[in-house]
Write a structure and sequence with these properties.
326 residues, alpha/beta, Rossmann fold, two-stranded parallel sheet, 11 helices, 15% strand, DNA (cytosine-5-)-methyltransferase, C5-Methyltransferase, restriction system, C5_MeTfrase
Length: 326
């Protein structure tokens, strides 16, 4: 339930974060006024990441499909259920059990609304569901169930580049609100400022160990990054994604074939393409420097790559907070 600490202060709202990953989305929503009573994820490293950064947050490390709200009474009547879900394939393209499990995860998230009865639902990472006709059956199911429960569905795609993130990262959003809050909801507008370039975001870090090519590199890395690709448990290690993504990174002077363990050293060739390290990947996502990740390189990179950039989460969260305050 929402609370106001002192007269004149902004209200705080309660939330449950499902498929919480490293906590980046919850971190952004925290800036917008949402305090999670419970975060749920089935990856042990991601749960450890959240736990070591926000000790006051309660983390449940289990599969959402096994989650029983009755064992967690604090879950009922929260203001918001939020989550960043795995992208689903269109029904005609489903070939593996994993594809079916991802769709079941989406449906479980929507069904949870009927059990917990929040004021609002926020699901992210579904651009295809929002935009493509191949997903019409899924969208109709979601919209009909939510309408039956008394919620109005809003959907859109937002690019993190419009919210201060140095990355062209398009995310699909589903937002549902109960009466009377839905009438006051509006999607956030972009900040109107130039999108930071990769050179602006990473230039200082490239020079951290004395690489003499850092300034020249930063000047030519004069565009936002392509979307950071975290990969999945079904494919390879820590690299910057498929061939097309690696080409886009190469145009920015980045070797995307793997990740580095550190910043480029002083003897790194001036005209060579450096690799990103884990911390720089987090910078591209606008995850704060003091947010510490748990796990080995590939695990950490997946946590970072799958995150919603916190500034985008904050922008959407503020739109929700405005609606819930009325």
């Amino acid at each position: 339930m929402s609370t106001v600490d002192e007269p004149g202060t902004a209200p705080r709202f309660s939330s449950i974060e499902i498929c919480s990953g490293s906590g980046a989305q919850a971190l952004g929503l925290e800036q917008a006024g949402f305090d999670p009573v419970l975060l749920i994820d089935n990856k042990a490293d991601a749960c450890r990441t959240i736990g070591q950064n926000r000790r006051r947050w309660k983390v449940l490390c289990e599969d959402l499909l096994a989650f029983d709200p009755s064992a967690h009474p604090q879950a009922y009547n929260v203001d918001l259920i939020s989550g960043g879900l795995p992208r689903i394939k269109a029904a005609a393209a489903v070939r593996r059990d994993q594809d079916i499990a991802e769709r079941e995860l989406l449906r479980a998230a929507v069904r949870l609304v009927g059990t917990i009865r929040p004021k609002a639902l926020l699901l992210e990472n579904l651009p295809e569901l929002v935009e493509k006709h191949e997903y019409a059956e899924d969208l109709d199911w979601i919209e009909n169930l939510l309408a039956h429960l008394g919620y109005t569905l809003h959907r859109t795609v937002l690019n993190a580049a419009g919210f201060g993130v140095p990355q062209n990262r398009r995310s699909g959003f589903l937002v549902a609100l109960a009466e009377p809050f839905q009438a006051s909801f509006a999607w956030p507008r972009t900040d109107g400022l130039p999108t930071p370039t990769v050179g602006e975001a990473l230039g200082a870090s490239m020079a951290a160990r004395g690489w003499p090519g850092a300034q020249r590199w930063a000047e030519q890395a004069d565009r936002p990054a392509p979307a950071l690709v975290g990969g999945s448990d079904r494919r390879g290690g820590a690299d910057l994604g498929p061939t097309g993504s690696k080409r886009a990174w190469a145009a920015l002077g980045i070797n995307g074939n793997s990740l580095s363990d550190d910043f480029p050293p002083a003897d790194f060739p001036v005209d060579a393409h450096p690799r990103l390290n884990i911390r720089q990947a987090a910078m591209i996502q606008c995850i704060p420097e003091d947010w510490i990740f748990f796990g080995r390189k590939t695990s950490v990179y997946r946590q970072i790559g799958h995150s919603m950039p916190p500034p985008l989460a904050t922008a959407v969260g503020r739109s929700l907070a405005t609606a819930l305050s009325r």
